[in-house]
Amino acid sequence: MKVGATLDPDLLSAVDGYVARHPGVDRSNVLDEALKLWFEREQDLAMERQIREDVKFYDDRDRVAWRELRDAAAARTFTKRR
User: Fold this and answer.
1) Where do the structural domains in the chain lie, given as residue ranges?
2) pLDDT band at 39 (very low <50, low <70, confident <90, very high)
């Protein structure tokens, strides 16, 4: 899909310099790669935000009690009996 965009002149110069040094690469290739990297970073940041927001639910009283019960049951099950 073709789109139009206004770019910072310094960035456009950097893109054009890169394209000039790399035969077979054009502005579209560079912008596609830049947008993929941007989108990947946005996904990583969204995941970090979600983890930070969800962490407040990990230590509520019920979850702590459940972990203690689970760990005690596992210890009983997996401890060698003498």
Assistant:
1) 9-78
2) very high
